[in-house]
Amino acid sequence: MGDHQYSIIKHNEHLLLDQPLLRLPVELLRKNFRSAHFTIEKETSALKTLLKDSATAAVSGQSQPADVINNVDAMLTRMRGMKRKLQAHAEEEKGLHKSIGARINHLNELYDLQTVDDVKYEDWSRLRLDRLMSDYMLRKGYYESAKQLIREEGIEKLVDVELFERHGRVRNDLLQGKMGEALAWCAENKKELRKLDSKLEFQLRLQTYIDLIKGNKTSEAISHLRKYIMPFKAQYSKEVLQACGLLAVQPGSRFAAASYPELYRDRWQMLADLFAKTHHTLFSIPEQPLLHIALSSGLSALKTPACHHADRRTGIATSMANGGKGVCPICSAELKELAVHVPYAHHTKSHVQPDLVILPSGRAVSEQQLEDQAVKVGLPETQVMDPSDGMIVDKALLRKIFIT
Q: Which intervals hold domain RING-Gid-type (predicted)?
């Protein structure tokens, strides 16, 4: 009965990891709608102005028929251009709707399953693992490998490849000291970044200003300061004042390193990390790979206080639950770095053994378990090993306890 209880799928809890699967295309839909709305507003305003000027000039007799025809041709050209842009937005919206539909169907398949023993659950879990693996590879820049996996498993509509590819291009450009792509991305998402109160654009403009100062291009630096940095004075007054101070403290002088160490040091890694954080926040993407989150949950369920015990002679982390002779998943070389930071498993039910004793370390352990472990590691009958730290303890120091 207990096993059946634990095999039942709790759908709401099961899908906590899959929130970004639906949230991301919704955010992309919002962005696409805002872009289409901006295009309509911009082109409509320009057309109204052009039409009003043409009509006024024609009525007042200030323009020739040829001028009126030229103005009409210009308006038609603008309208065709707007139509092409809106068609592109419509195609993108159609693709996003298909993607959302495929993702909803994928999640609905889980609701048709009731227990993890169902044979279909294994197929669904494998598909989810493919999604997590492709998400991890895209974040790490293994685009071709990720695309191959996505094609082979047929999960094109469940993974946002283009979004991560552009994120990777912008981040790599920043690491190489290039800001063109990053500034273009900031321009595309200007309103959203303003709502997030993001410092990304300011930091990029500040870096351009610092590069001009380093290149002894003082006049260009002053123009850049007035045009791009001074508008941020109300938000970042301290940083703007420091930027102004750079004009008086040239790089290479003895005051530069002491007065402005944070501005004159290499800032490209910081800018790349800031862009990644801003990008993921804007599109509701977890900063940590979903694969790491899933692994952390599983590792936490397996982790015990006996894990990550370092053998005093070898310094190798081993699992004391197996007498120090085996390596558990938590202590394995592949997973121990990730597992060391996760919490221990939270158990809602306690299973107390009837022969508990207290060790000098204060830990309560089954006396039979200690004796079995002592036999495995070859200790004398009068000694046992503390599982928490591997200390050898005389049985005389053990104290019997009773649960009341």
A: 328-389
Contacts of residue 268, defined as CB under 8 A and 6 or more positions apart, other chains included, come to: 174, 175, 176, 177
Query: How many angstroms separate the CA atoms of 317 and 332, rounded?
Result: 8
The answer on pLDDT for 402 being more than 80 is no
**Cα-based torsion angle of the residue sequence 209, 212, 214, 217 in order, rounded to the nearest 10 degrees:** -140
pLDDT in tens, 108-152: 888 888 887 788 888 898 999 999 999 999 998 899 999 999 999
Domains (range + CATH), the chain: 2-117 (1.20.58), 164-282 (no CATH), 291-339 (no CATH), 356-400 (no CATH)
Q: Read out DSSP for 72-106? A: HHHHHHHHHHHHHHHHHHHHHHHHHHHHHHHHHHH
| 392: Cβ contacts below 8 Å, ≥ 6 apart | 379, 383, 384, 385, 386
For residue 191 the two structure tokens come to 């309103």
CA distances from 374 to 128, 156, 337, 378 (A): 43, 55, 29, 6
The DSSP bridge partners found for residue 364 are 358
So what's the pLDDT on residue 72? 82
